[in-house]
Design goal:
Length: 308
């Protein structure tokens, strides 16, 4: 069975009706899963020590200061905040870690976490792009610390480059990161020639595409490049930064993926997880700003997870 981790506290990160990363995204994603047989599991608050697995203590203090002092935007960049944003972000990271617990303690084969705010733009010392803490990166480090997982694979099909995740693992050599993304587009990072450094050389895979890319390009990367990379890495845990702003019609992207494409992308990830990680896979929500498109993409994704 697939675990679903979705806490309504996600809706308390509310930064204005006109902001695309709005509380209604939570309801759209959760409502799309009605009728599916899922194992509901709780989220929890991440501790400061857990956040520090990927972020500097100075940055954590900055977030605390900015929220407590009533800032409307993080002082590090373009992330709108409100009085509840820190609490919500801690629950988002905690949800991703509870997803790791669920699959590595063998309660379920895979898990999907509906969280806000998203996380993949958050670098070790900077929040940006709607993100405070890097949920999927924290989940990877948590799995390594608590369960002694040696190798993790993260795939990011959000329309925006996961620059924060790349920065965290660029010199690491234990976490493989693959990102397909629109280019040129926010945040302006992720050229194909960025492949990692030092121990991390060869552990970063960037596949940027121009506006209008769709199934042929994105699924092609997963089938033709990521599967061979997984053979080399042999990950013990598979994570997905599941961004649905790469879907056709999203207001913040110009890719053309369909719901069928999301099912097929999910099946590639399940194939990798089955072959190397005993099926252990955790998917964490990132972008997706058309409520109808987000709902449809999430439904297709989780149906595929549940069919595994």
């Amino acid at each position: 069975m697939t675990a679903l981790i979705a806490d309504p506290i996600s809706k308390e990160h509310a930064t204005g009706n006109r902001h695309p990363e709005r509380p209604e995204r939570f309801d759209a994603a959760l409502g799309a899963l009605e009728g599916l047989e899922l194992k509901r599991m709780p989220a929890r608050v991440a501790t400061a020590d857990e956040i520090a697995l990927c972020h500097t203590r100075a940055y954590i203090r900055t977030v605390e200061h900015d929220v407590t002092d009533g800032f409307h935007e993080l002082s590090t960049g373009d992330t709108a905040i409100c009085s509840r944003s820190l609490d919500v972000a801690l629950f988002a990271a905690g949800a991703a870690m509870n997803g790791v617990d669920a699959v590595l303690d063998h309660h379920v084969r895979n898990a999907f976490c509906i969280v806000r705010p998203p996380g993949h733009h958050a670098t070790p010392d900077r929040g940006m792009g709607f993100c405070l803490f890097n949920n999927v990166a924290i989940a990877a480090r948590y799995a390594q610390r608590k369960y002694r997982v040696d190798r993790v694979l993260i795939a990011d099909w959000d329309v925006h480059h996961g620059n924060g995740t790349q920065d965290i693992f660029y010199c690491d050599g234990t976490v493989f990161f693959c990102s397909t993304h629109q280019s040129p587009w926010y945040p302006g990072t992720g050229p194909a020639e960025e492949t990692g450094q030092d121990k991390g050389y060869g552990w970063i895979m960037n596949r940027p595409f121009a506006a209008g890319a769709g199934r042929h390009e994105i699924l092609g990367v997963f089938e033709e490049s990521l599967i061979p990379a997984a053979e080399r890495v042999k990950p013990e845990l598979v994570l997905i930064s599941a961004g649905f702003d790469s879907r056709l019609g999203d207001p913040l992207g110009h890719f053309r993926l369909t719901d069928t494409d999301f099912k097929d992308l999910t099946n590639v990830m399940l194939e990798i997880a089955d072959k190397y990680a005993h099926g252990r896979l955790v998917s964490v929500l990132e972008g997706g700003y058309s409520l109808e498109g987000l709902a449809a993409g999430v439904r297709a994704h989780v149906e595929a997870l549940g069919a595994a």
